[in-house]
């Protein structure tokens, strides 16, 4: 999806169909080989892919409490601003990463899941000027 800017604030509701270890949001998405991934399940993490290769675990959270269970509906919010990525889960900041290596280009993001029946709803995208 096109955010229209490299710096943005996104809120979305994720509905899990099973206990999860793999829903994710691709941010600063230039193409399928170059992007930053936010993933959550039992923990949350920021990961970067460059040239199609996993290049780093930028930050991992402590255990999410509670972890995602079947039927959970959770509001996920993330902000990508320059080298900073912040992620909220159930209203709490779980990732607050400042990493100069974070890709700062790419205006797209993607929503992915580990099960074909997962859903996302109530998507709001705000450009950060």
What's the layout of helices and strands?
Layout: E1 8-15, E2 24-31, E3 34-40, E4 44-50, E5 53-60, E6 73-81, E7 84-89, E8 92-98, E9 108-112, E10 119-127
Antiparallel strand pairs: 1-6, 1-10, 2-3, 2-9, 3-4, 4-5, 6-7, 7-8
Q: What is the gist of this entry?
A:
This protein has about 130 residues and is an all-beta fold.
Strand and helix order: EEEEEEEEEE
Please give the order of strands in the largest beta sheet.
8-7-6-1-10
* Unreliable stretches: none
Please tell me the overall pLDDT: 81
Total number of strands: 10
First-last Cα distance: 19 Å
Protein architecture, described:
With 129 residues, the protein is mainly β. 0% of the residues lie in helices and 57% in strands. The chain has strands at 8-15, 24-31, 34-40, 44-50, 53-60, 73-81, 84-89, 92-98, 108-112, 119-127. The strands form two sheets. A five-stranded antiparallel beta sheet has the order 8-7-6-1-10, with no helix packed on it. The chain has a five-stranded antiparallel beta sheet with strand order 5-4-3-2-9, with no helix packed on it. Strand 4 (44-50) and strand 5 form a beta hairpin. The radius of gyration is 14 Å and the shape is globular. It starts with 7 loop residues before the first strand and ends with a strand. The mean pLDDT is 81.
